[in-house]
Amino acid sequence: MSSEKTGQILNAFCIDLEEWFHVCEASTPYDDPKTWDSAASHVVKDTEVILRLLDEAKAHATFLTVGWVAERHPELIRRLSNAGHEVGSHTHFHRLVYTLTPEEFAQDLKRSLEVLRQVSGQAVVSFRAPGFSMKRECFWAYPILRENGITVDVSVVPAPRDHGGIDGFSRDPILLHTDAGALTVFPLSILSALGRRVPFSGGGYLRLFSMPIIKYGFRQNHRAGRPVMTYIHPREIDPQQPRLDLPRMKGFKYYVNIATTEEKLRTLLKTYRFGTVTDTLAGVQSLPDYQLVDGDIVPMGARVPPGADRLAQRAI
Ligand SMILES: [Zn+2]
User: Fold this and answer.
1) Distance between Cα 232 and ligand 1 center (Å)
2) pTM for the complete prediction?
């Protein structure tokens, strides 16, 4: 570790481990999982690049893995697990949470956890919804996650966003109490500027923004004593991936600066301390308590209407 990193706050590094054709909310020739085996697979070679970058920086990360990918490439999951990285779930078929019924969501989650736990040999306790698709309307997913052994969710973007995004949500990790038990919700990092909340530390935002903007975001969060969460998809460092015919704006966000992402990640990994989601949360002093009340997440101890506990149970 370089001396400038010593004493720095630990930040979470996440990889959403999926294929280049796992797109959310856009019609492609790969909408149906039955077509996925017909597509060229890039996930192993792309992930190997990321593993090398992490190795260079002596950093560990959390790989939020699509169960279908783990079924196809169990050796990749075993390798990264043996290298000390954390394996989490990114569902089995990469479908947006709010397009599913609670029963469909539970079934898909269980299938992913079964394969991920078996292949990785890990407990698998972290989860990210595809496309950060956790919205108020699908908070019913939290007790289901907890019932299935998930204790950390990294699906919330506390800012407005295409699919998902909960404007006004806590920027700090919280402990969410549900009838099935408590789980930590660790929201994606955002920066606040000109009265607006903007993600900056992952995916298309990370590729689009210049390093001074990204560093400003890190500084703003670190000053508040808050770790930053960075995320990347294997395809985002792969200029050779097949191109999908996406709507203009979506295509721009999907492919902007792909050729320079590897170098940007190398710089980030040199500049800041990164670890798994679990290790990062271990360094967080205290988590404010929240609960599900009538389908919404509210601080515990805040004014709640009479009978709120009963309502919360009904909402679950
Ligand atoms: Zn995804």
Assistant:
1) 10
2) 0.92
Query: What topology does CATH give the domain 3-26+35-315?
Result: TIM Barrel (3.20.20)
243 backbone dihedrals φ, ψ, rounded to 5°: -95, 135
Cα distance between residue 30 and residue 103, in whole Å: 24
CA 42, 48, 54, 60 torsion-angle sign: positive
Going from the Cα of 69 to the center of ligand 1, the distance in angstroms, rounded, reads: 11
Distance of CA 90 from the midpoint of ligand 1 (Å): 7
Whole-number Å distance, alpha carbon 242 to ligand 1 midpoint, is: 17
Question: Contact, 112 vs 150, CB < 8 A?
Answer: no
N-to-C CA span, the chain: 45
pLDDT per residue, tens digit, the chain (316 aa), is: 445 676 799 999 999 999 999 988 778 888 899 999 999 999 999 999 999 999 999 999 999 999 999 999 999 999 999 999 999 999 999 999 999 999 999 999 999 999 999 999 999 999 999 999 999 999 999 999 999 999 999 999 999 877 678 888 999 999 999 999 999 999 999 999 988 999 999 999 999 999 999 999 999 999 999 999 999 999 999 888 888 888 888 888 878 888 889 999 999 999 999 999 999 999 998 999 999 988 899 999 755 554 544 444 433 3
Using the mean position of ligand 1's atoms as its centre, give its distance from the Cα of residue 27 in Å: 15
What is the C-alpha to C-alpha distance for residues 168 and 226, in angstroms, rounded to an integer? 17
Tokens of 220: 């703003």
The CA-atom distances, in angstroms, between 103 and each of 32, 135, 277, 296, 316 are 20, 17, 27, 20, 13
**Of 38, 1, 36, whose CA–CA distance to 19 is shortest?**
36
Domain locations along the chain? 3-26+35-315
Contact 181, 295 (CB under 8 A): no
CA of 133 to the centre of ligand 1 (A): 10
Mention every residue, 6+ apart, whose C-beta is less than 8 A from residue 119. 70, 74, 77, 78, 81
